[in-house]
């Protein structure tokens, strides 16, 4: 294309020429993303505004009757006039919405929410709550919002913020601690916020309930300097891992007092799902290699014993033989986790199978029988779950394949077509008839809308690394939270040469050197280890079982693994 030399026409010609270098498909993609982002924004505010109008400050909205429920505790069965006089509402949906408001850039509503919570929210109430749910929804929501509030780059706070959310989180965390007072450190599933563990409390809990606490409680310890929260969650996680079978599989439910498994069927679905998720995300957030080693073993076992083509069935934890051939909607998180683990090809294949089921029914049924290709007769509901949207977001981030945007658009259309009502968004009771149920779960605002929004507008995660908790609350990955070895580290598996230099490949055992001539001497050439010495498996002396510990160089005694995961001479003579 040639351009005239006339100045006025030359400028116009150059603009036309430039248009030839702009990919029209790229332009279309950006227009589509902007349009879909605004549709998701409208969805969020339709759900949020109705909650604030008809349910706040209670836990969750009932959109069909425009009323409320306090779903995290036994208070959910009581009517307004029967609530305790000191109960002001725990505003779970507000807590859950704070990080979504931040991502949508609504600093005004974000700051208003913080102000209300700091002045009104109390956990000193006689209410029995589910530890796992309260941890991921309330504690996680408070911690995430606190971190967003103190980050000056977000510009979310115009007034003063004095760590009010962190103080609330710390108070809640302390109320969790009595749940861990069991023989093996496995926490009770239920805790009374005012009175601790109730008399005759059930001792049954799930693998997720015990093993999905480390992100929130670990972050709380890092922020407050109080190690009790992370220690309690880590002890429970380690104990759970010790209870795995020889196949590296874990059951679904267990007894926290006896430490015995109650349900032997193992899977990546309900009751176990977030256990896998938190192993990998804890490794990313805290940098402990232990978490990666556990996740790698558990992931390889899942591929060996659960995977059948692109699907994942359930298997007996002891034998590895299939037990139930069924898809559960919670499993749809798995492709997103596979993306984080780097297994993108497998993630893509699994994701497509979940989406095919979504297309077949319009939404994702809670349970689908793979061997019969039918919906489970008693689990036909869809409670606005976010897992498919979550995995779609991760896969688009990893591949930038526009097909995932089409998936997101389909999800948005389905939600608006089947679940949107004047009072918010209602759960689906039966996906075969699209009969609705009077419940808008808080995770619809915390996760479903959030992941859909991030799919079409990823500016929030473009410049910083975040992990998202199992409830969709972002926590920034910070190097200061990562464990590091001391700069001067002495390994018991190394010895000195006569010159004082390290001989990193030579151990006292391989050299058959004698015990130290002068144990208290600081002279390098005299720092020898006995011939009986067997080094610990890990250089930092971390361990999961006694077999990873060696033999002490001085006493020639077998070392053992402590309850907090370090090799040492813990057993008495």
From TrEMBL:
Ca(2+) binds at residue 470. GO terms for molecular function: alpha-mannosidase activity. Residues 1-21 form the signal peptide. It is found in: Endoplasmic reticulum membrane. Its main location: endoplasmic reticulum. Its EC number is 3.2.1.-. Its cofactor is Ca(2+). It is a single-pass type II membrane protein. The active site is at 133 (proton donor), 273, 366 (proton donor), 387. One of its GO terms (cellular component) is endoplasmic reticulum membrane. It holds the Pfam family Glyco_hydro_47. Keywords: Calcium, Endoplasmic reticulum, Glycoprotein, Glycosidase, Hydrolase, Membrane, Metal-binding, Signal, Signal-anchor, Transmembrane, Transmembrane helix. Belongs to the glycosyl hydrolase 47 family. This is alpha-1,2-Mannosidase.
């Amino acid at each position: 294309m040639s351009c005239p030399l006339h100045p006025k026409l030359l400028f116009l010609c150059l603009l036309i020429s430039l248009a030839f270098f702009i990919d029209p498909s790229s332009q279309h993609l950006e227009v589509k993303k902007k349009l879909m982002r605004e549709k998701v924004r409208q969805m969020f505010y339709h759900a949020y505004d109705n909650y604030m109008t008809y349910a706040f400050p209670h836990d969750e909205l009932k959109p069909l009757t425009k009323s409320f429920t306090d779903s995290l505790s036994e208070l959910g069965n009581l009517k307004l006039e029967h609530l305790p006089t000191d109960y002001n509402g725990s505003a779970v949906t507000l807590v859950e919405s704070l990080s979504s408001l931040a991502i949508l850039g609504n600093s005004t509503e974000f700051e208003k929410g913080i102000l209300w919570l700091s002045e009104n929210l109390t956990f000193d109430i006689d209410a029995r709550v589910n530890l796992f749910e309260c941890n991921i929804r309330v504690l996680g929501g408070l911690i995430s919002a606190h971190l967003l509030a103190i980050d000056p780059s977000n510009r979310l706070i115009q007034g003063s913020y004095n760590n009010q959310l962190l103080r609330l989180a710390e108070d809640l965390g302390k109320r969790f601690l009595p749940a861990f007072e069991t023989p093996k450190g496995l926490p009770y599933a239920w805790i009374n916020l005012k009175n601790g563990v109730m008399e005759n409390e059930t001792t049954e809990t799930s693998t997720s309930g015990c093993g999905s606490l480390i992100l929130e409680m670990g972050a709380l310890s890092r922020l407050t300097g109080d190690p009790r929260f992370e220690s309690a969650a880590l002890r429970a996680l380690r104990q759970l891992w010790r209870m795995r079978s020889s196949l590296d599989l874990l059951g679904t439910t267990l007894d926290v007092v006896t430490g015995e498994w109650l349900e032997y069927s193992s899977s990546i679905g309900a009751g176990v799902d977030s256990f896998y998720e938190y192993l990998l995300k804890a490794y990313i957030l805290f940098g402990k290699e232990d978490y990666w080693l556990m996740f790698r073993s558990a992931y390889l076992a899942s591929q060996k014993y659960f995977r059948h083509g692109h699907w994942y069935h359930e298997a007996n934890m002891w034998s590895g033989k299939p037990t139930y051939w069924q898809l559960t909607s919670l499993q749809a998180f798995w492709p997103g986790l596979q993306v984080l683990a780097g297994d993108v090809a497998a993630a893509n294949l699994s994701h497509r199978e979940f989406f095919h089921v979504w297309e077949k029914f319009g939404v994702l049924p809670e349970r689908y029988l793979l061997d019969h290709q039918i919906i489970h007769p008693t689990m036909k509901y869809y409670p606005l779950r976010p897992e498919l949207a979550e995995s779609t977001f991760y896969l688009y981030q990893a591949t930038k394949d526009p097909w995932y945007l089409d998936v997101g658009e389909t999800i948005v259309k389905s939600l608006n077509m089947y679940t949107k009502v004047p009072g918010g968004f209602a759960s689906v009771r039966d996906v075969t008839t699209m009969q609705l149920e009077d419940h808008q779960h808080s995770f619809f605002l915390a996760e479903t809308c959030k992941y859909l929004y991030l799919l079409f507008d990823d500016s929030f995660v473009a410049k910083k690394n975040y992990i998202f908790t199992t409830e969709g609350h972002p926590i920034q990955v910070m190097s200061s939270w990562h464990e590091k070895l001391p700069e001067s580290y002495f390994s018991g598996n190394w010895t000195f040469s006569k010159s004082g230099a390290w001989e990193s490949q030579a151990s006292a055992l391989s050299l058959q050197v004698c015990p130290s001539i002068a144990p208290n001497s600081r002279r390098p050439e005299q720092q020898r280890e006995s011939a009986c010495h067997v080094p610990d498996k890990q250089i930092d002396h971390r361990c999961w079982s006694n077999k990873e510990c060696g033999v002490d160089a001085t006493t020639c005694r077998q070392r053992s693994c402590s309850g907090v995961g370090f090799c040492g001479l813990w057993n008495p003579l």
